[in-house]
Fold these 3 entries.
Entry 1:
Amino acid sequence: MKRVVKEWYKKSAILGLVVIFSSLAVYINSLSGDFIWDDIEQIADNPVIKDIRNIPSFFTSDLWRLISNPTIGSYYYRPFFLLSLAVDYNLWELNPFGYHITNLILHAISSFMVYLLGRRLFSNHIPAFIGSMLFAVHPVHIESIAWISGRTDPMAAVFFLLSFYLYILFRDGKGFIMLIFSLIAYFFSLLSKEIGITLPLLLFVYELSFKQQQDKHSHPPLTKGEWGDFRDNRIRILQIAGMYLVISVAYLYIRALVLGEAIGQSSSSPPIDKRIYTSFGIILDYIWIMILPVNLKVLYDTPLKESFFDWKVIFSLFLLAAVFISTLLSYRKDKTVFFIAVWFFITILPVSNIVPLKPTMMAERLVYIPSIGICLLGGLVSYKICRIGSPLFSYSKAFIPIMFSILSLITFQRNKLWANETVYFEKAVEDAPQNAYAHHNLGDVYRKTGRMKQAISEWQKAVEIYPLHPEANNSLANVALMQGDYPEAVRRYRVALKGRPENSESHYNLALALERLGNTDEAISHYREFIGRASPNYQDLIDHVTERLRVGDRGKGQDQER
């Protein structure tokens, strides 16, 4: 009996259960969290998810056009995310508890899949266990789990890892059906979040790292007939790669068809060269917070690098190049190390700011899938250190549970920052004091809780930082309108519309203020803009304004007849 208890760590099934339990335990206090930030629009105020008859529209529209405004496009085609919200609403209605349960389940499945993948890569469950535990409890993943709207990453990760694992089973001779399921899981990953597009490249590197090596070991020296088999195997691999590419092209075509012109709407984003200069430091920061998570933030306000010749840009580039070259050099010495290290560089590409990211260039949720490689690498390195016989490393085994405990404690404590909007946005302003959007959002939270003086102060700080901030100007204009200062309201609304011409709320409120000033003709033009741009959430108001305009037009017609 003592031997069984003592050697529990050698039983892979028990280790898998420990990973699942740990991934749930560290986030248990997030279950009491409220809807915050995007959760309000995407869940609480979103009529689309509240009727299952709308499910087909999830696959034919982009995320934000469907949720908030039919005239505003976005980059985001994530039908599975909306589908998950609709399922949650059907089960829990507007109880955040149920939505948080879904997030925890997704993270637990992802963590377990990391364990299964690690076992396949290492052929050893101990380093796989350490790596998956790092992934399960690491505080860099809090945003993806404790924030309901952050679930796109763990959802994509579940299908991403499942597809990868099924592909490995197929390559190990488990049947062609595994490949079919792998392709389906890959497509589901794409429908969850765009980062799934990196899987085919990762599979190619997997073949390069492991299968070629196995072929060489299994065919020395190759006879003439065996050379034909070797070549046929390569052709077969290319054919399989073609299947994943077909899925990729089909997804990109559907995405382009649905998003349309919204794909190219990035005029407000910084130029690509400046985004790339900035990305060198961001990628290094991601690596750093994975290794030493001591300066985590709920909001990162990353200064844009204007020139390549900025010493910080050059230093970051050289340091990043050194890490990348070291990864490439590891190919000859240890292909397993090479593969799990290059995992990070491949999967970080879609979130490296080559494609513009909004509202911030850096966010912890973006590193959820890329972190898998770093966690598995950490598991392998820790395992190898523990196996060194030197007295210097005799206490290394004791350090591993201490490390897990520290990471778990950090995660458990930081979950509280996502408890409600007040806590979250006060922390966001603390973390990013020069971020105008953080100040505006905090002001909006203060408004909801009746603290108008503090709200106005936050909105004023927002426009000090960014004079054209559309939402902050709109909020200050609303205050002026309620106070009867119509000229100030009109001025603020015009600034708000200069920053965001498609804002239907600003058009409507500007029309009200213009009417108070007697400028009826211009007011009517903005009422019409409101009708053309407003979301279905404003249907009652749309009907009211439409009727008013109809009556006005009828009255003008009668006057002309007289």
Entry 2:
Amino acid sequence: MRAISNITSDAENAKGKISKKATLISEILRDSGYNTYAIGKWHLTPQWETSPAGPYDGWPLGRGFDRFYGFLDAETDQYHPALVYDNHRIDPPRRPGYHLSEDLVDRSIEFIDNQLMALPDKPFFLYLAFGAAHAPHQAPPEYINHYKGVFDKGWDEVRVARLDRMKRMKLVPESTALAPRNESVKEWSALSPDEKRLFVRLQEAYAGFIEHTDAQIGRLTAFLKSRGQLDNTLIVLLSDNGASQEGGVNGTVNATYYYNGIAEDLQQSLARIDDIGTERGFSNLPWGWAQAANTPFQRYKQNTHFGGVRDPLIISWPTVIRDKGGIRAQFHHVTDLTPTVLEVLKLKAPEVYHGVPQLPVAGTSLAYTFDKPEADGRKKIQYFEMIGHRALWNDGWVAVTAHTRGSSFDDDKWELYDTRSDFSAINDLAQKRPEKLAELKGLWNSEAAKYGVLPLDDRSIQLFFSHDPLSPQSRRTFTFFPGKDQWLPGAAPDTRGKSHVIRASIDRKGKEAGVLVAYGSLRSGYSLFIENNRLVYVYNFGGKITRIESASELSSGPMTVSMEYTQRTAIQAGVVLMANGEKLAEG
């Protein structure tokens, strides 16, 4: 997969789905006698395959997992998640104080504990993927309040303090320098008091979200310890990318604006500052705090500079790794984790799986680092590509380019860094060492050809609107019957930016009220319903509510009501409410 599952094109590497030529570690372990559990974020099934019609071969249970509990998309509301249990959609628990991260660990414990009681000697594999710290940043208020005042000093001072702490902990070399502020990140002292107040609150929610997640990881490890399973369990903890740039320069209280290419007004955000971190807030960081989270590097998630791809990795296996808290400095990549597990379990990936010839396993096992902290790194090369951005790491040298969307890839300006002496990759040697840069660019091309990266494609949001011809969203007409709800977002009628009609045949004996059809959440969406004996249509754009209501009351008995929506411009539409062909309201 060259990109996330929401994106598809005609290219073989952009089908929004993991190839059947690539056996997953879950499939290998299940066939080797393990129980396999996937909990939390999946995001590896094309959205158009998440309807009740499937197909289910790209869902977790179709890719080697015995059980699944979580969500299929990139993100979800932590208080009202779009939950899937095994192969069916469910409503989230409605208990007071519910939070998804806690629920995911509860379910992890339940699955493992049930197995330990039934077959205590049978091994298990748990893939636990939290929604944190992806937007929306939501956490119980006590965790957010813990950070009151902590970030008032601003992102410039925080970055300096973090790098200093990293050096004291020996996580980075003493010579490591701090990357300059990324483009468009202002000096903290130049911000207005209102900007500082908003940005601090956004960062407090982010920090509280992470600490709350850490507490849940602690609950899971405490459970394993209580069952005598902690010491003999290999635990791998990592983040999947650098902190996000999707909050924009000023951050956001509602990420809907970012995904629609609209800048959120500062005063608009300040008016909702108390929603941040709550079920009514869908916040993300401003760029300044995102770069602070990526200390000491440049840029962010979606880039192939180190700020986008260099991440923490913690491995615990007390019966094997004896130096608790020890540090390993060898360079490795997420593709190295499967070879590591295969090596320590003395397993081999199949050459043919279910009749399909398999791609060779990429990556280099890092198991040699377990008992040899100072060993020379065995990984020699790694390519990166993300929406046209490219990089190549080779024996400490890094060539990297930030691509401008829509421009020729031949025009990309490449940078060159020697991370053996420049850990944070900020001293560009491209002009001094053109022959080295040319060598690494050539290596990128060969690695890209080897691993199916080509053709390059810098489209992202545009491809969110692409649908498989057989998907539900390729249809023009949908018929729903009473009680048939719980469709996942990626398979529901795609009305974004499209003229459409909702028509309902109803038969009321009196003044019955209720929802006819609704789609979305507190963040955005629409609903057509009857209230106070009137037909009502509500459209929620990022918290901005438009309500159109019939002036006259509806009659009882059988009738057909409708909402006719006409898209006029990119940001304007007309709505007409009808009953039995008679106009009731418009707006």
Entry 3:
Amino acid sequence: HFNPLWDINNAESRTETDRLLINVFGDWKIVKGLTYRLNASLSSRSVDSGSYLGINHTSGQNTQGKATVTRSANFDYLLENILTYSTEFKGGHSFDATLMQSVNYITWKSISNSATGFSNDDLSYHALASAVEHGVPTYELSERKMLSYLARARYNYKDRYLFTAAVRVDGSSVFGPNNKYGVFPSASFAWRANEESFMRDVEWISNLKLRASFGQVGNQGISPYTTLGLADKYMYEFGTYPMVGYLPDTSLPNPNLKWETSTSTNLGLDFGFFYGRIGGSLEFYNTDTSDLLVNKSLSESTGYKSQLVNMGRVNNKGVEVTLNLLPIKNKKIEWNVDLTFAKNWNKIVKIDGSVDENGKPKNDINNNWFIGEPMNVYYAYQFDGIWQLNDDIASSHMPDAKPGAIKIKDANGDGKLDDTDRVIMYRDPKWIGTLSTGISYWGFDLSAELYVSYGGTRFNSYLTDFNQGGDMTAKRNGVRRNYWTTNNPSNEAPAPNMIQAPAYITSLGYQDASFVRLRNVQIGYNFPQKLIKKAAMQSLRLYATFTNVWTYTKVIGYGPEQTPGSYPEPRTMLFGLNVSF
């Protein structure tokens, strides 16, 4: 017998189990001001999953059914030893120091088996052992270990002057044997100006705080065993016997891989005026990231396709502004408005130190990396319209083109079209911002958030790929295009071509990624206490929430933040009732 809710032609099951084996924490006072704290946790998570494509399924009928069973498990162990000393002095001085040591061990393992050939679908993948033919079992193991040390000291004078200094040492198993550890210092200072005696009589200033900080952080976001020379398994026959052979992985190992380090300087101002009616913050930051962990493309003549390396230096600087307004606040109505604005400037300062024949730093065109330009760019030909019947094509930079063909911009103005006419197109937005507001009146409340992303470029394969209707043959039910014809001299899309895709069709795929989105709206009503007390209720709220309400963009696809072909972003409506007694 089988569960009638299952589709025996495509049955799937998934069971997840979480176990908290150990969770210990505690504080012990050693002497006055000195405290020891222990944090220890040990947890595991296992997942059992099975899938079955039945005899009548399109993918299982040729094999008389196909079953797969997988079991995976995660194990996470964390131990922290923390020693803290704190004291206060006369006159409003206070000081504390912290020493910390931690160990973190994470392991993941998975085992899987598959089989084909079943007499019926009754037991789906539970009948794996009775299958006619069994696949080769697979087993995977991944381990990550982290050892950390921290020392921190803080000084506070009357909550007016605040100093912090710290140094952290982290060791990770994912790096090479000579570079497992990284040292990351930091320091910060804050001054509450409104606490000064000369500011206390300025009543319209409720908060004024200046902040400055400097620090380094490390990035270990790579997979384990990357620094080792890995091998891939291949099956072959030796006579009549199946054998297993191994070939090097397509990624060249790098035993000298080390921590990626980001060094940041931050200046900030927090302010509040008119008893909280106006508030916000202003942030300026500058971050240099060196020894970036990047996959560098290699010539396949080396036998490898890529290598994970520490390379170059990237600079990010920017400004972030937050403004909180409370225009109206009284017993009947309250209205707040919040504004945020963020702009980031990103550029590559150094790649690998190589220079060209003129002694200038050399760009890495294969990876679209250019000195002085952002890290995240496209490098391609730029669409410049469609060649028309009255254009002087013969004397142009594309003399072989025909009317109705794609025109590429002569970027360098030399009168010919070659690789040097490719242009850099920035993928990241120039700036982003949000406007959110909320208003409440006699139990009713309304809130909304508007998000704006301005600038940036997105490549849309729907406009260029044959299988997605962008090949210009006009044969498929793809994206609707304003094709060029002699009777319709369009300047948007080339003439249909029944034989092959037009030349330079990929230039049509780069679109302005700017968009404005009303991300969410919520409407609610809180019933008055006089009404709900009779029903022995403490609170009663009725509400409706709407997400992804409206979007304006020129991107042709399911959404400006979605990769073409991915699942569309849903527009949701949620109605709810909250009751407490």
